[in-house]
Amino acid sequence: MSAQLTKEEKFVMFRIGTSLLAVPVDQVIEVYQPELITPIPQSPPNLAGVINFRGQIVPVLDLAGKLALQGQPDEEALYVIISDKLGGMAGILVDYVESVISVDPKNIKTTGEVLGKRIEDIPYLTGITMTDEGIVLILDLSKIASVDEFKFFEELRKSSIDTEQAKSSTKAKSGSSDSFGLNLEDLNKKELVQIATELGVTNPSSKTRSQLIEIIKEKMGL
Length: 222
Hints:
With 222 residues, the protein is of the alpha+beta class.
């Protein structure tokens, strides 16, 4: 009688600096390369900004900052792993996405077994394994965001839904707040140009500050 085969688990493996990490493939919607990440003033720590993901405004965590790792990103390429496990649709910014790897569960050790009790107490570090590339730390994206980050993601998602509802009902909205809950009048021209670029505005740097505010309002249905 043949031995029963153990089903291998699949992970998306990526790099931050010299560190190899991975997340379960079923936590990943897509590996996305945005043209721009737009910073958001007064956002939670370790939030890189927001991106336009197929017409949807999606927050992005700076995973290097979150894990206190020294990242070495390619300045000409941004890699964002999109997931719906971070308090709604969100992404994590990484240096480079390597590949999808298959790992036998018996070859996955708990971080406590390998690195000690102190590391075991970090909830989002769920395992460690060896590959041909080296040691890989396995993360659980559903546990990686802080309470403040989850709250921010939820508020952003709600504001985006509210904006879409406003567009569909064609009701005019008063005030000059954008979909992030920010006042456009408080932003400088550089920040307005970044937002306009994310919204697909052609050559936004040639516009005046007041023109940019009106264009952004129109694009967002405000």
